[in-house]
From TrEMBL:
<dbReference type="Pfam" id="PF16036">
    <property type="entry name" value="Chalcone_3"/>
</dbReference>
<dbReference type="GO" id="GO:0016853">
    <property type="term" value="F:isomerase activity"/>
</dbReference>
<dbReference type="InterPro" id="IPR016088">
    <property type="entry name" value="Chalcone_isomerase_3-sand"/>
</dbReference>
<dbReference type="InterPro" id="IPR016087">
    <property type="entry name" value="Chalcone_isomerase"/>
</dbReference>
<feature type="signal peptide">
    <location>
        <begin position="1"/>
        <end position="33"/>
    </location>
</feature>
<keyword id="KW-0732">Signal</keyword>
<keyword id="KW-0413">Isomerase</keyword>
<dbReference type="InterPro" id="IPR036298">
    <property type="entry name" value="Chalcone_isomerase_sf"/>
</dbReference>
<feature type="domain" description="Chalcone isomerase">
    <location>
        <begin position="33"/>
        <end position="201"/>
    </location>
</feature>
<protein>
    <submittedName>
        <fullName>Chalcone isomerase family protein</fullName>
    </submittedName>
</protein>
Length: 212
């Protein structure tokens, strides 16, 4: 009889452990999974030899159109643009296209974002890198729906851009230039005012439209 009681107790304890483990797995999955506009966003990215965490992600709107999903990856979570710009280590912005966009349209959006969020002295400092950045877009005829563009800051190397995993640029070494890119989305005049808080880990009440 005692053996039977021990068996029941052990079986009940084992069942409780199994249930707790299953519950923990479900909770972990729900926390780590991120999906925006039907696009699954990885919660981890590897840049150089560093493992980065998803800081936030959202949709870039232009007029009535959804242009791309943007995701920001950092070593540690940051809640303000200043913290992101001053953070050491590798960084990544991933863009997943939600519609086809020609290189001229995309380049105009990037350049406009840089112009609106960088002063004359800053632009004078990285003018040569800005020109090379324009040449990169000229080499990409079009980004199609589902294409992935990553803009990485690699410590000791510089800004490196990939399209669908293929490197399309040499490293652009000035960290001020990478910060100028970050300001496209996180500056005082971001291309989409609703995307900025999303990339900073917030959930905006209503998406607001940018002016580019």
């Amino acid at each position: 009889m005692k053996s039977a009681v021990r068996f029941v107790r052990r079986s009940g304890f084992a069942a409780a452990l199994a249930f707790a483990a299953a519950s923990l797995t479900l909770i972990t999955s729900s926390v780590s999974a991120a999906e925006v506009a039907g696009v699954r966003i990885d919660d981890i990215a590897h840049v150089g030899n560093q493992e980065l965490k998803l800081n936030g992600a959202g949709i870039r709107h232009k007029a009535i159109f959804k242009v791309y999903v943007a995701a920001l990856y950092l070593n540690d979570r940051k809640a303000t643009a200043a913290e992101v710009l001053n953070a050491p280590g590798a960084k990544r912005v991933t863009l997943v296209m939600l519609r086809n966009v020609g290189n001229e349209e995309l380049a105009r959006g990037f350049m406009s974002g840089i112009q609106q969020n960088s002063d004359k002295s800053e632009k004078a400092r990285f003018i040569s890198q800005l020109q090379k950045f324009g040449e990169i877009f000229a080499s990409i005829p079009e980004l199609k729906k589902g294409d992935v563009l990553t803009t990485d800051w690699v410590p000791g190397s510089g800004t490196v851009i990939h399209v669908n995993g293929r490197k399309v640029s040499d490293a652009l070494p000035d960290p001020a230039f990478y910060n100028a890119l970050l300001k496209i989305w996180l500056g005082d005049k971001p291309v989409d005012a609703g995307l900025k808080p999303a990339m900073l880990g917030e959930k905006p009440e209503e998406p607001q439209r940018g002016n580019s």
